[in-house]
Design a protein that fits this description.
mainly alpha
Length: 57
């Protein structure tokens, strides 16, 4: 299931994570860590879980 199918909140969080990763050398380097990238992906995961749980109600 893609971010856009999970609703606007998940799509917005996914877009923010992708935009950050596109300009972040640490995000594009295998094995490197990026606190901001991890935080953005976490926000997307939470939004996606929320959308899936609302869909199942």
């Amino acid at each position: 299931m893609t971010a856009s199918l999970l609703g606007p909140a998940a799509a917005n969080e996914w877009r923010a994570a992708l935009e950050h990763a596109a300009g972040c050398p640490a995000c594009r380097t295998p094995g490197a860590g990026c606190e901001i990238g991890e935080r953005l992906l976490g926000a997307y995961e939470r939004a996606a879980r929320q959308a899936r749980s609302e869909e199942g109600e």
